[in-house]
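Quick start: load a record and inspect it. Here is STE24 endopeptidase:
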Amino acid sequence: MSERQDSDDHLSTTGTGQDGDDPPRPHTSGKGDDASGAGDGPAPGARAFEARDRWQAAVALGLLALLTLAVAAVTTPWTVLTGGPPDAARDFTAAQIARARAFDAATSLPGYLSLALTLLFAAVLVATPFGARVLGRLRGPWWVRVVLGVVVITAIVEALRWPLGMWVETVLREYGLSIQDWPGWTADRLKNLAVGVVLNSLMLLGLVALARWVRRWWIPAAAGAFALTVAASFVYPVVFEPLFNEFTPMQQGTLRTDLLAMAARDGVPVEDVLVADASRRTTALNAYVSGFGATRRIVVYDTLLRAPEPQVRLVVAHELGHAKHDDVWFGTLLGGLGAALGAVLLYLVFGAVRRRAGVASVADPRAVGVVMGLMMLGTQLMNPIQNLVSRHVEARADVHALDLTRDPATFVAMQRRLAVSNLSDLTPDAVEYVLYASHPSSPERIAAARAWAKLNGVPVP
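Running the structure step on this input writes:
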């Protein structure tokens, strides 16, 4: 696929991108709404308007970026207790460290290949007319073509990544982390894809509709992206999570009573403590907090309940730390601001790539390809920043658990259990740590617990 940046001829090969049910919308050129980009270009008045609009969007982008950075700076605990250089050999045997390294090596290659394929395909969508040509074959009203476009692009991406997913699943089974059969694995993966298609379709439908009706579409698009992110965070725990697991209230008993009492003592309102049936697919141990307000709940994997009760209480104390500090809410706020920033950035970047991508306007349903490509690239660029923030937030939750339980010995025992059971990377290299680590490494967390013990006059485990 050659680059033809200096010619508009190739744009017309995919059609005008308009259909009979198009509503009237503001024109930015004196030659109508031909999405092919053919003709002499916008009239001088339209060019002046576009230049002014782009300048305003650039200013808005800068203000949103400053606001996002300010919120991140204020809400992220940048100065968190640490214990100095971690020493995996102090707490784990040579065999455990070797097994963790072998597992990491076995999953790194398909992981990096998946990342490379995603970035490569995203670049193809953004820098070539491939997406416009493929989606130009779709027929129907514009909104049908938008949804079909999301389905087609998602299917192509998944077709590229599916064999790599099977590769990783095979490794997980070899190491005893996955106990799913292939039908169950396939069903979960398809459900995950369906959730992505639904959310992306809602977003793209709104974006294309705004671009067809509103001249400065990036303004309501930014507001809509923020609102959709907040709504999804609120709805996801009660609508989408049950698609993947069954959740039941933790059974009455000493453990449940202790957990609720601990939450009350901590001053954290918890709607419920639920148990997820994770054991039907994995042997990994986990717990998490999701939602906020009426949907906030602490979820414990049923696999975690096999651990001693003091260790379960400590893990839940960590999750209470997230609730205590409103981490879900602030994470949602940052996500919403990031989505709004992304909508404005999309407007600015689209103008620079639309000729290469073969689409003149976001109002064209064929633009779904380039928009999704830009989203993929943006997501990968933001992941290291999100992981940096997440690691500090998780470290604060660890300190909260220690403050609440005052039991660093159990904390260290639990970190050892989690690391060995989940085959956590005990000696991550710098690249993987930046790209993928959303939590401090287990040796880092253990070192922080020992530092906490020294500061608080508690026996060092």
